[in-house]
């Protein structure tokens, strides 16, 4: 323990960097847990679609969507999502909506916009289509 304390004292910049990284991880973890937007695994997505009539919305490019997509997924072009144009999804406003992007990163921004637009149950597929394909689940082409 004394060596550890001595190391921390001898390397203040490195210590500050590690403390900063640790705090950032804690803050991000707390934000994710408290967020109204849930991150779903591919299995949770399947359960939500089958049990609660969840709607899968793919926000990738048209080319990526046509190449491979989750079965029965609806396409919402990124141009419409960026302009807050969710008219094609109005009928599904009270159903669970699961957003899918390539890696699960850009879908969070669209999910926030959808919540502000009045969609009550918006989730994101954690890992996006990469996670879906990696789990060996079926895709439509």
Describe the structure.
There is one protein chain. This protein is of the alpha/beta class and 141 residues long. The protein has two domains: 2-33; 37-134, Oxidized Rhodanese, domain 1, CATH 3.40.250.10. 50% of the residues lie in helices and 12% in strands. It contains seven helices and five strands, in the order H-H-E-H-E-H-E-H-E-H-E-H. It has a five-stranded parallel sheet.
Provide the β-strand percentage band: 5-15%
What gross morphology would you assign? elongated
CATH level-two architecture of the largest domain: 3-Layer(aba) Sandwich
* CATH superfamily grouping of the largest domain: Rhodanese-like domain
User: Strands of the largest sheet, in order across it?
Assistant: 1-5-4-2-3
Radius of gyration (Å): 20 Å
The overall average pLDDT, rounded, is 89
List segments where confidence is low: pLDDT < 50 over at least 5 consecutive residues: none
> Got a strand count?
5
Number of domains: 2
Q: Layout of helices and strands, plus pairs?
A:
Blueprint: H1 2-10, H2 12-34, E1 38-40, H3 42-52, E2 55-58, H4 62-67, E3 74-75, H5 78-82, E4 97-100, H6 107-116, E5 122-125, H7 128-134
Parallel strand pairs: 1-5, 2-3, 2-4, 4-5
List keywords for this structure.
five-stranded parallel sheet; alpha/beta; single chain; 50% helix; Oxidized Rhodanese, domain 1; 141 residues; elongated
What is the gist of this entry?
The chain has 141 residues and is an alpha/beta fold.
């Amino acid at each position: 323990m004394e060596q550890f304390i001595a190391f921390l004292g001898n390397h203040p910049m490195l210590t500050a960097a590690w403390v900063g990284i640790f705090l950032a991880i804690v803050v991000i973890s707390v934000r994710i847990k408290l967020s109204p937007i849930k991150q779903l695994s591919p299995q949770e997505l399947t359960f939500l679609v089958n049990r609660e009539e969840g709607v899968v919305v793919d926000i990738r490019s048209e080319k990526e969507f046509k190449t491979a997509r989750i079965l029965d997924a609806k396409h919402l072009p990124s141009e419409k999502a960026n302009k807050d144009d969710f008219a094609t999804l109005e009928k599904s406003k009270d159903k669970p909506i699961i957003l899918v992007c390539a890696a699960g990163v850009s879908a969070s921004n669209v999910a926030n916009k959808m919540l502000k637009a009045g969609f009550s149950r918006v989730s994101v597929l954690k890992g996006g289509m990469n996670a879906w394909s990696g789990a060996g689940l079926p895709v439509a082409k």
